[in-house]
Every structure is written in structure tokens, then in C-alpha cells.
Design goal:
Blueprint: H1 3-22, E1 39-42, E2 45-49, H2 62-75, H3 90-102, E3 105-109, H4 112-123, E4 129-133, H5 138-149, E5 153-157, H6 162-171, E6 178-183, H7 195-204, E7 208-213, H8 227-233, E8 239-244, E9 254-258, H9 261-270, H10 272-276, H11 282-295, H12 299-320, E10 333-339, H13 341-353, E11 356-357, E12 359-361, E13 371-376, H14 383-403
Parallel strand pairs: 2-11, 4-5, 4-6, 6-7, 7-8
Antiparallel strand pairs: 1-2, 3-9, 8-9, 10-13, 12-13
Length: 404
């Protein structure tokens, strides 16, 4: 990126963040009172929290809390060693259980971002090419910068445009391996990648490999909560999936799911952050193990069904009020398009005045003039909470749009 463009981008980002702070929507810290997942206290006033990605509500599950405490008692607050030398004992069991859950060979990373940075420079060689969806998560785009440094050819295509993907593959005829980088569930507009079309393309095009970040699909979707991507493509030998162990999973760290043991071994041995970054510490390993046991149990089906009921209720209510979503793919993320960023902030500010904390989704998470209000549904929410939020949206949205 040219220096002038980089400076302009940072300036615009700073402007957006400062505007969010001024409206009380960004860089907030709730009051120091106990949380219950449903409500937060802001400036001494309770508000319903629709800003959490803890879709299954497991962060307050007593089994995860007990897992944290037991891990600390056994192994301390930290295991202060790089994994290249020694890892905490819980790693082996966690990766085994995650392998059962995800149906592949799992490597646990400290964060999803560091998982991308560890995996992609090992998976993608300088003689390979990369095609990147324009809305793939910023953490993946950061890892792609490492590929540029080694000389890898990078192309970007329009969001989920299979015809443009096919055209890019044709343009890259001289490359034996081409990686397509995308999200499974997109964190802003909440649409799911065109997995059926990608499966068909994998069958037709032997050079194509997929690297999918499905962090927002884990837990609430798929068998054992493996997410929509692994549910649809998990048996394919040319598919690698990264998944957060935060969000639905309610722990810490990330899982990178490989189709074979050798790929996992290579990334484990030479992936930069696997050598130089700190590990997932015992408290979060304990929480992750407890969460994995829940995901592998019949109980998960009931949790997923309860969340689907909330998603269906919200979708019906929005339709009744004539409020359109950016996507109707049935995820727990709801994005209401507004347009200009100041209008999105105004809607979110009015909702906050009414006692609902939502996200004003603006640049750089979305294009500058495609801002909106984003809110997430979790098992902490009661049906009446969703009804009241949609009613408030139906009041404020036409008023704000009428002024803009």
C-alpha cells in the first residue's frame, strides 16, 4: 500500500473511532459489577447486551468455571515455556478432543490471528498463488502480508463471487497450487460462504485449495459445533479451517484443522508463532477442555436448537416490521444496513438510550458508505428482549433514515 494511502486510511480509522467514542459506542468499559451475560451496567444504568459473540452463553457455565479453577490448582496461572520446548499437559487432551469435534487433525494456537500467521506461510509456498475474498477477516489479511514478503502472487476478488473466482483461476494457469482465502461465516454482514459452489469447484479444479476462517460458525452450527464449513467440506483433502475457541466456545485460543497429520506437524514445528509466541495458558486450556466435552455431548443439540429458535423469532419480527437484514442466512449475527456511518451511529446511540447495547458497524469493518447496526443473539437473551429490541429499531430506524 502506498504511504499516502496508508496515512489516509489510518486517519479515516481514527476519525471513525473518535466519533464512536463521542457517541458512547466505542471503547466502553462497563461498571465494575458482576455480569450475568444478559445485562451490563453502563454509567450506573442497566442495558441489555446485544454486543456479545458468546452465542451459546457458555462463558457463565459452571463446568467451564470449574475447569478454569482446576487447571490453575494443578498447573498455576501460567505455563511459561514456548511450546517448541515444552507444553502444558492439557494440550494433548484438548487437541485430541478437538480432533473428535472438528473431524480433522487439530493444532491449537494462542489466538486465531496467530494461527493464521503460523499456518499460511507454511501452507503457501512462494511458487503458489493466493486469491483472497475482499471481505475475508482482517486477521487473515494480516497473515497475507507475510506471503507478499516471500513473493507470493496475491489477487483479490469480489465478495463470494464464484464466477470471478473461476476467472482468477483461469488467469493463474501457470500455478500448480492456488489458495482461496475466505470466511465461513462473515462477521459483519453475517452471510455464509457459498460452500456448495466451492465444493463443486474443488471437484473440477485440482489446483484449488481452501483456507477458511470459520470462527463465527463454531459452536452454534454443525455436528459437534464444528461450524458450517467443516460440516460441508470437512472431509476434503485440500481444505484447511481455522476456528476461534472464543465466541461460542467461551474459552481462549484457536484451532487450526488440517486434513492430514503431516500438515499439522509441519506448522507445529516451523510456524513462527508456534515457536516464538506464548502458549494458551492453563486457565483457558481448562475452560476449553470443559467446553469441548459439552460440544461432544448430546446437550449441544439442545443448545443449538434453543439458539435457532431465537434466530427464527428475530427474523420473523424484523420481517413484520419491514426491517431488512444484509443477509438472511440464519446466523446469530444480525446486520441492519443504514448507509452513512453517522446515521449508523445515531441509530445505535438511540438504541443505547433505550437500554440496548448494539454495535455501530463502520469503516474499516465495512465499506465507508455501507455502515449499519449489528447485534448478536445469544442464549442469554429472553424472547421478550428480542421483541423489545426489534420494536425499538422499528421506531428509530425510519426516523434516522428520514433525516439522512
Amino acid at each position: 500500500m502506498p504511504v499516502k494511502d496508508a496515512v489516509r486510511r489510518l486517519g479515516l480509522l481514527d476519525e471513525m473511532v473518535c466519533a464512536g467514542i463521542a457517541d458512547g459506542l466505542a471503547l466502553r468499559t462497563p461498571d465494575d459489577v458482576p455480569f450475568d451475560g444478559r445485562e451490563l451496567s453502563l454509567d450506573g444504568r442497566p442495558v441489555l447486551n446485544f454486543g456479545s459473540c458468546g452465542y451459546l452463553g457458555l462463558e457463565f457455565d459452571p463446568r467451564l468455571q470449574a475447569g478454569v479453577c482446576e487447571a490453575v490448582r494443578r498447573y498455576g496461572t501460567q505455563f511459561a515455556s514456548s511450546r517448541i520446548y515444552m507444553q502444558a499437559p492439557m494440550y494433548a487432551e484438548l487437541e485430541h478432543r478437538l480432533g473428535e469435534m472438528f473431524g480433522g487433525h487439530v493444532l491449537v494456537a494462542p489466538t486465531t490471528t496467530l494461527g493464521h500467521v503460523a499456518a499460511l506461510p507454511v501452507l503457501v509456498g512462494p511458487q503458489d498463488a493466493v486469491i483472497m475474498d475482499q471481505q475475508v477477516h482482517q486477521s487473515v489479511q494480516m497473515a497475507v502480508d507475510h506471503l507478499r514478503c516471500q513473493g507470493t502472487v496475491i489477487k483479490m476478488i469480489r465478495h463470494s463471487d464464484i464466477s470471478q473466482l473461476e476467472a482468477a483461476l483461469a488467469q493463474l494457469a501457470g500455478y500448480e497450487r492456488i489458495w482461496y482465502l475466505a470466511d465461513g461465516v462473515y462477521s459483519m454482514y453475517a452471510d455464509i460462504a457459498p460452500l456448495g459452489q466451492l465444493a463443486a469447484l474443488l471437484q473440477r479444479e485440482d489446483r484449488l485449495h481452501l483456507y477458511i476462517d470459520d470462527s463465527h460458525g463454531v459452536g452454534w452450527a454443525g455436528r459437534h459445533g464444528r461450524g458450517p464449513t467443516l460440516d460441508r467440506l470437512g472431509s476434503h483433502e485440500r481444505v484447511v479451517v481455522a476456528a476461534s475457541l472464543c465466541k461460542s466456545f467461551a474459552a481462549g485460543g484457536a484451532a487450526v484443522v488440517f486434513p492430514d497429520a503431516e500438515l499439522k506437524r509441519r506448522v507445529r514445528a516451523v510456524g513462527g508463532p508456534m515457536i516464538f509466541s506464548g502458549p494458551v495458558q492453563p486457565p483457558m486450556l481448562g475452560a476449553a477442555l470443559a467446553s469441548a466435552r459439552i460440544h461432544l455431548s448430546p446437550e449441544l443439540h439442545d443448545l443449538q436448537r434453543a439458539l435457532r429458535e431465537r434466530i427464527e423469532l428475530c427474523t420473523q419480527l424484523l420481517a413484520q416490521h419491514g426491517i431488512a437484514l444484509a443477509s438472511n442466512d440464519g446466523t446469530p449475527i444480525c446486520f441492519v444496513p443504514v448507509g452513512r456511518p453517522e446515521l449508523a451511529r445515531e441509530v445505535a446511540r438511540r438504541l443505547l438510550d433505550d437500554g440496548f447495547f448494539t454495535n455501530a458497524a463502520t469503516y474499516p469493518a465495512v465499506p465507508v458508505r455501507q455502515a449499519g447496526v449489528r447485534f448478536m443473539l445469544t442464549l442469554h437473551h429472553r424472547p421478550s428482549d428480542i421483541q423489545h429490541l426489534v420494536a425499538a429499531l422499528s421506531r428509530h430506524l425510519p426516523q434516522v433514515l428520514g433525516t439522512g
